């Protein structure tokens, strides 16, 4: 009888311990290879531990125990009477060719310095299916972007990780038994096709990984949810709304109609935080705790820009085939001010200050899965129409969940516009490791004094949050005043003065 020891796997550089969740099997039970045994929960994510072999389970750690990386969780006693040891189950090979070459393993790729784990979306293929090289197999979702995993060879697929599972970087996702002499069966039907010209066939009723996890946690069938995303895709917001609807229905069943309509109800409900929300929470708290963040405010008279836009917007769109918005004015004003106040465009690394001779401007964009922050590279050298076109391109990719990691990392300064949601004033939180962020707000007609007269002008309050460790008050106030000057006299932007 051979014993296989199962220990806490390495799940990320900063994770040192995990908590044992609820066991799905009891001590002494017979388990199959790849059968779910228990959930492991870290401070970053919850992931599943599957049996590595077939045999008798011997539990060594109880639910609630905290174990370090490498700690013993359980043992599998593999016996010939109950089944032989098999590290991974083989897919059905009815259509598998006789000449099978090497097996290719596909693992979670390195997708960014700060990303340690991903969530698997819905598989496009099943174990045993024949897949072509470069064919999309599954979507992987991180806390920053969603990207596709494609087959690296043509062969028979063996799925190792299930949809919704959270995997660390480098973890095994699937295997492909490479075929050398088997022609591609084009008539074989697959659950999902992504290259038939009909995007809705794939997207309709298909939840994103975060939405699927929410629906699964609340016991809601995706088939009962109407997707509002592209081509009918179920977004995270759809899942949250479906949860509310489900709770209302459940409440109506449990309570009498009279109690259900009584105002002042004190019902409570709990929802497990998604991986994305936990990551955002952790990063925001870290910024507040690790930086000396301060915010300074000013107001901008938007009438000069509004008059300029009204005069030239039609001609601008006719020539450049893109609308003239406020963001290009703010982006150009910021890049000019950053040249005069380089500390605002720098960041701290250890005991050194890293300055940038360029301006990569991060622009906050509202997307179905949350607020995304893609980057406009070398914005200081771009024209108004180039900036507007880049903003449109990045915004569309964000709303389709198609932003790459490269398009969301490396910014040197961030602009966020809470005004589109009606915000009058806010103190935006720095987008680490950057040292400053500019907050735009709504435009409201306010009485102001000009030349000794009270006049009504369209005013926007602007806020600059900055890290006081690197940026002094003189620099922060001077930067914001310079931005105000450029916006209130846009001819300065055009002339570079």
Write a structural description.
Helices cover 25% and strands 28% of the residues. The chain is of the alpha+beta class. It has four domains: 2-78, OB fold (Dihydrolipoamide Acetyltransferase, E2P) (Beta Barrel); 100-181, RNA polymerase II/Efflux pump adaptor protein, barrel-sandwich hybrid domain (OB fold (Dihydrolipoamide Acetyltransferase, E2P), Beta Barrel); 202-290, E3-binding domain (Dihydrolipoamide Transferase, Irregular); 292-495, Chloramphenicol acetyltransferase-like domain (Chloramphenicol Acetyltransferase, 2-Layer Sandwich). The strands form seven sheets. Strands 17, 20, 23, 24, 25, 26 and 27 form a seven-stranded mixed β-sheet that branches. A four-stranded antiparallel β-sheet has the order 1-8-6-3, with no helix packed on it. It has a four-stranded antiparallel β-sheet with strand order 5-4-2-7, with no helix packed on it. The longest helix has 19 residues, at 236-254. The relative contact order is 0.09.
Provide the gyration radius in Å.
28 Å
Number of strands: 27
Distance between the termini: 82 Å
Please count the helical segments: 10
Q: What is the class of the largest domain in the CATH system? A: Alpha Beta
Shape: elongated
